[in-house]
C-alpha cells in the first residue's frame, strides 16, 4: 500500500535529527530525552500518515460500510512502541536511538500513558481499535479528549491519595487538531412547534472540536481514526462584560464549556447520576452522530441507505442516548417519518452490555433528562410507547421509563438490533437475569462476543523474551493469527524448549524484581512464585480474600517455622474510586499487612507483599509477563468477562480462579488440568445468599479464617490504631455480600495445590507453556471478526 521504502537505522536517525531540529527547535547537543522521544514519534508518525490516507481513500472508493465505535473511555496507554511494532520497525528504531547515544528504554518510558479510561472497559475499546485496524475493518473510534485522564494514585501512610493526571501538559505527538471539524452541541432550552413539527431550541451550546489520532494495524496495512472531542465555548468570551471591566465573568462561557471535557469520571462500574456526566455522554454522542451523518450525506448517500453504510456500536450504555439522538436527527432535522426513523436507528445500532452489577446500571431521573435534553425525553417516551404498541404482550413492568427514571439498559436494548454480552457465562446471565422479558420479545437479539486482547501489545511488545522464543520455535506470523500458537504444543515434550520457556519467564521476573527494588526498596527472590492480582479495587474482585489468605500463610509460617515453604511474592496493583470507602480500606489493610510481614525477621524472603502505586497500562505491561500465578478470584456471576485474565494466561501464568466471566472459557481452552479452580459457581452463590447467616456460618467452620479476622480485629497490623478495621471485620461476620468467607477455605486449599505444583518445575513449565499455546481464541482479532460477522455485517477491506 505504501511505496515509501523501509527505512534503515541510518535513514531513520536522519529523520529523528531532522525533527529534533525543525519540529522541536532544538540543537541536538541540547536536546532532552523528551525532545528525542518527540522526534522519534514524529518520524514514525510520518510513516503512518500514508497508509492512513490510503485506507480512507479505499474505504470511500469501494463504498465500504463504516463501523463507528462509541466509547466514553479509551485506555490506550503508550503509543510509540506499539506503532513501531505494528510498522515492523522496533529493531530499526532501537538501533537509530542507540546510534544517537541514547537509551532505548529511557526514551520509550518518557511517554506518559494516555489514561482516558478506568479499567477493563476502556482497555477493551483500545484493543478493539487496534484489531479493527489490523483486520482492515473500516472504522472510527469516537471518544472524549479528557484534559485529565484517570487520577494518579500515591500512597501516604498506606492510604490512597489521588492527584490529577496531566497527560496533555506536554505536546501529544500522535494527534492532529481539526478546528474545521467542530459541531454545536445543545443542552436544555425548550421544544417548540414549527410548521406542525417539534423543534428543539437549546438554552446552552458548546462546540465539540475534533482531534484525530491514527490507529495503525499489524504490519501497517491499514489505519483507522480515533477521533476525540474537546469542548470549546461557542464564543470565546463575553466582550460586553470584558469591556465593562468584569474580567472574570467575561471568561465564564469558556470555563463552563471546558468543564465538559475536563475530567474522566473515576468510577469503575458505579454510576454517579451527575448532570455533568449526562452532559458528557450526550456531548460525545451528539458530536459523533453529526459527524457520521455529515460524512454519509457528503458522499451523496440517502438516509434510507444509512444502515447499509453505517454500523454504530455503543460500548455499554454510556452513549445510549445515541438511539433518541439519531431518531431526532432523522425525523426532526431531516424529515424522516418518526417510526421509520426508529426502525432505521435500530438497524444501525448495536449495544454491548458490560455488567450486571445493579450499582452500575445507568438510570437518569426523568426530570434531569427532561431538563438537560427536553426533546430527547419526549422521544424516549415515544420509543417506549411504540415498543409497547408493537408488543401488546409486553408485561406492564417492562419498559424504558419506570418510577420517574429512564433506564438506559432498556433504552439501549430497544434501540439496537443486536445486544451482546462479553463472555459466554455473562451472556447467559443477561438473558436469564437482566433482560428476561425483552429476550422473550426479541429472541435472537442477545448474542455473545467473548472479549479479547491484542497480541501485538500484550505479547509481542510487552514480552520480548517470550516472543523471541516463539519466533525461534514456530516463526513469525502468529501475531496476526494467534491460533498458530497451537504449533507450540508439540514442543512441550521437549525439555530444551521448556527450559527456554522458563528462562524467558525468569528474565521477566528479574527485570520486575530490579524495578521493584528501585521503586519500592523491596528485594524480591526471583525463585519465588510471583503471584499477582492487578485490577481495579472492588469488593466483588475480592482482593480482600487474597490478603486474608496471605495473612493465614504468614501465620502458619510463624507457627511452624521449620516446615518447607514455597517462597511467594504477592503483588497487588489497582486504584479505588476516590469515594469508595470499603475499597480504600482494603488497600490500607494490604499496605498495613505488607509492612508487618515484609519486616518480620522470622519470615525472610519466603513471603513478601508489594503494592506499587498507580497501576496503569504501562505497569500492566511490566508486571504481567513476570507472573507465575494470575489471581482471577471474583465472586462468581459478578465479573462480566475480565481481560486481565487473558493477558496473564497468554504470557504463561497459571490462573487461580473462580468459574466467572471468561475464566470459564479460558479453563476450557487451556485444559482443566492447567488451571486452579476453586469456589462457588454463580448458581451456588445465589443459593448461598439465601442463608442470611452465611458469613457467620462459614467463619465458624474455618478456624484459620477466625484466627485471621481475630488478628486484624486486635490491631495486629495497625498497632497505632487497633480499631482501624473494626468495620471491615464486622462486615465480614455480618454481611459479606461477596462471599469471601464462603469461598475462603476452597481458595486456601487451591493455593496449597499451587505450592505443590510449583515444586515440580518441569510439570509447572509444561502447564505454563500450554497456557500460552492454547490462548489463541482470546485474540481481539477473533472478537472483532465476530462483531463484523454477527453485528456489523461488514467485511475486511484488505
Ligand atoms: C487489562 C486491564 C484492566 C482490566 O483488568 P481486569 O483484571 O480484567 O479487571 C484494567 N486496567 C488495566 C490498566 C489493564 O491493562
TrEMBL record:
Record's GO cellular component terms: cytoplasm
Obligatory cofactor(s): pyridoxal 5'-phosphate
Superkingdom to which the source organism belongs: Bacteria
Subcellular location, record wording: Cytoplasm
Catalytic activity: [(1->4)-alpha-D-glucosyl](n) + phosphate = [(1->4)-alpha-D-glucosyl](n-1) + alpha-D-glucose 1-phosphate
Glycosyltransferase found in the keyword field: yes
Swiss-Prot/TrEMBL keywords: Allosteric enzyme, Carbohydrate metabolism, Cytoplasm, Glycosyltransferase, Pyridoxal phosphate, Transferase
Modified residues annotated as N6-(pyridoxal phosphate)lysine in this record: 647
GO MF annotation list: glycogen phosphorylase activity; pyridoxal phosphate binding
Keyword Transferase: yes
EC number assigned by the record: 2.4.1.1
InterPro entries in UniProt: Glycg_phsphrylas, Glyco_trans_35, Pyridoxal_P_attach_site
GO biological process, one term: glycogen catabolic process
Protein function: Allosteric enzyme that catalyzes the rate-limiting step in glycogen catabolism, the phosphorolytic cleavage of glycogen to produce glucose-1-phosphate, and plays a central role in maintaining cellular and organismal glucose homeostasis. Phosphorylase is an important allosteric enzyme in carbohydrate metabolism. Enzymes from different sources differ in their regulatory mechanisms and in their natural substrates. However, all known phosphorylases share catalytic and structural properties.
Family note: Belongs to the glycogen phosphorylase family.
Name of the protein: Alpha-1,4 glucan phosphorylase
Organism encoding this protein: Thioclava indica
Amino acid at each position: 500500500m505504501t511505496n515509501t521504502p523501509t527505512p534503515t537505522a541510518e535513514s531513520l536517525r536522519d529523520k529523528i535529527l531532522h525533527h529534533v531540529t525543525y519540529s522541536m527547535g532544538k540543537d541536538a547537543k541540547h536536546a532532552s530525552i523528551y525532545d528525542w522521544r518527540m522526534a522519534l514519534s514524529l518520524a514514525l508518525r510520518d510513516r503512518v500518515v500514508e497508509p492512513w490516507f490510503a485506507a480512507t481513500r479505499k474505504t470511500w472508493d469501494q463504498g465500504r460500510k463504516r463501523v463507528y465505535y462509541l466509547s466514553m473511555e479509551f485506555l490506550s496507554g503508550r503509543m510509540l512502541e506499539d506503532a513501531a511494532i505494528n510498522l515492523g520497525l522496533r529493531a530499526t528504531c532501537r538501533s537509530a536511538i542507540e546510534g544517537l547515544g541514547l537509551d532505548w528504554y529511557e526514551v520509550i518510558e518518557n511517554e506518559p500513558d494516555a489514561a482516558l479510561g478506568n479499567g477493563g472497559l476502556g482497555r477493551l475499546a483500545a484493543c478493539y481499535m487496534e484489531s479493527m485496524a489490523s483486520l482492515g475493518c473500516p472504522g472510527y473510534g469516537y471518544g472524549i479528549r479528557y484534559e485529565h485522564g484517570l487520577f494518579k494514585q500515591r500512597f501516604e501512610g498506606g492510604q490512597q491519595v489521588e492527584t490529577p493526571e496531566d497527560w496533555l501538559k506536554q505536546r501529544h505527538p500522535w494527534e492532529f487538531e481539526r478546528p474545521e471539524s467542530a459541531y454545536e452541541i445543545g443542552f436544555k432550552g425548550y421544544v417548540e412547534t414549527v410548521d406542525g413539527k417539534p423543534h428543539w431550541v437549546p438554552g446552552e451550546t458548546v462546540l465539540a472540536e475534533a482531534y484525530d489520532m491514527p490507529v495503525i494495524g499489524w504490519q501497517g496495512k491499514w489505519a483507522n481514526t480515533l477521533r476525540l472531542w474537546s469542548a470549546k465555548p461557542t464564543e470565546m468570551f463575553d466582550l460586553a462584560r470584558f469591556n465593562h471591566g468584569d474580567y472574570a465573568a467575561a471568561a465564564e462561557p469558556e470555563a463552563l464549556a471546558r468543564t465538559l471535557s475536563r475530567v474522566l469520571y473515576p468510577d469503575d462500574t458505579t454510576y454517579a447520576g451527575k448532570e455533568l456526566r449526562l452532559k458528557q455522554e450526550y456531548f460525545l454522542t451528539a458530536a459523533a452522530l453529526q459527524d457520521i451523518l455529515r460524512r454519509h450525506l457528503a458522499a451523496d448517500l440517502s438516509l434510507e441507505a444509512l444502515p447499509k453504510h453505517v454500523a454504530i456500536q455503543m460500548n455499554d450504555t454510556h452513549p445510549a442516548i445515541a438511539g433518541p439522538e439519531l431518531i431526532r436527527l432523522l425525523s426532526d432535522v431531516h424529515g424522516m417519518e418518526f417510526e421509520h426513523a426508529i426502525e432505521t436507528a435500530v438497524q444501525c445500532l448495536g449495544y454491548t452490555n458490560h455488567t450486571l452489577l445493579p450499582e452500575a446500571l445507568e438510570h437518569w431521573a426523568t426530570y434531569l433528562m427532561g431538563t438537560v435534553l427536553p426533546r430527547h425525553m419526549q422521544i424516549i417516551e415515544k420509543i417506549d410507547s411504540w415498543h409497547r404498541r408493537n408488543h401488546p404482550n409486553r408485561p406492564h413492568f417492562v419498559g424504558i421509563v419506570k418510577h420517574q427514571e429512564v433506564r438506559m439498559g432498556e433504552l439501549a436494548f430497544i434501540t439496537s438490533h443486536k445486544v451482546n454480552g462479553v463472555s459466554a457465562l455473562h451472556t447467559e446471565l443477561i438473558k436469564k437475569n437482566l433482560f428476561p422479558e425483552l429476550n422473550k420479545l426479541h429472541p435472537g437479539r442477545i448474542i455473545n462476543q467473548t472479549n479479547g486482547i491484542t497480541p501485538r501489545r500484550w505479547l509481542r511488545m510487552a514480552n520480548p523474551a517470550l516472543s523471541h522464543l516463539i519466533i525461534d520455535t514456530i516463526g513469525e506470523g502468529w501475531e496476526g493469527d494467534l491460533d498458530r500458537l497451537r504449533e507450540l504444543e508439540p514442543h512441550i515434550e521437549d525439555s530444551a524448549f521448556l527450559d527456554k520457556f522458563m528462562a524467558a519467564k525468569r528474565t521477566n521476573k528479574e527485570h520486575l524484581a530490579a524495578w521493584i527494588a528501585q521503586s519500592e526498596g523491596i528485594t524480591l527472590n526471583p525463585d519465588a512464585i510471583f503471584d499477582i492480582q492487578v485490577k481495579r479495587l472492588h469488593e466483588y474482585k475480592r482482593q480482600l480474600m487474597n490478603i486474608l489468605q496471605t495473612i493465614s500463610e504468614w501465620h502458619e509460617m510463624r507457627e511452624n517455622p521449620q516446615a518447607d515453604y514455597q517462597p511467594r511474592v504477592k503483588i497487588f496493583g489497582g486504584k479505588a474510586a476516590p469515594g469508595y470507602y470499603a475499597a480504600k480500606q482494603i488497600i490500607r489493610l494490604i499496605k498495613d499487612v505488607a509492612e508487618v510481614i515484609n519486616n518480620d525477621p522470622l519470615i525472610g524472603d519466603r513471603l513478601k507483599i508489594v503494592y506499587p502505586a498507580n497501576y496503569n497500562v504501562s505497569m500492566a505491561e511490566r508486571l504481567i509477563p513476570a507472573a507465575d500465578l494470575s489471581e482471577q478470584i471474583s465472586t462468581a456471576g459478578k465479573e462480566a468477562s475480565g481481560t486481565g485474565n487473558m493477558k496473564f494466561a497468554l504470557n504463561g501464568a497459571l490462573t487461580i480462579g473462580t468459574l466467572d466471566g471468561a475464566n470459564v472459557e479460558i479453563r476450557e481452552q487451556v485444559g482443566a488440568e492447567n488451571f486452579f479452580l476453586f469456589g462457588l459457581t454463580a448458581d451456588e452463590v445465589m443459593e448461598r445468599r439465601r442463608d442470611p447467616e452465611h458469613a457467620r456460618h462459614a467463619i465458624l467452620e474455618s478456624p484459620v479464617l477466625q484466627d485471621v479476622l481475630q488478628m486484624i480485629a486486635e490491631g495486629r497490623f495497625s498497632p497505632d490504631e487497633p480499631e482501624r478495621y473494626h468495620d471491615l471485620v464486622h462486615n465480614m461476620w455480618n454481611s459479606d455480600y461477596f462471599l469471601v468467607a464462603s469461598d475462603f477455605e476452597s481458595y486456601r486449599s487451591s493455593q496449597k495445590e499451587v505450592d505443590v505444583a510449583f515444586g515440580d518445575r518441569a510439570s509447572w513449565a509444561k502447564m505454563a507453556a500450554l497456557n500460552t499455546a492454547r490462548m489463541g481464541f482470546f485474540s481481539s482479532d477473533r472478537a472483532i471478526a465476530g462483531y463484523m460477522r454477527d453485528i456489523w455485517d461488514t467485511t475486511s477491506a484488505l
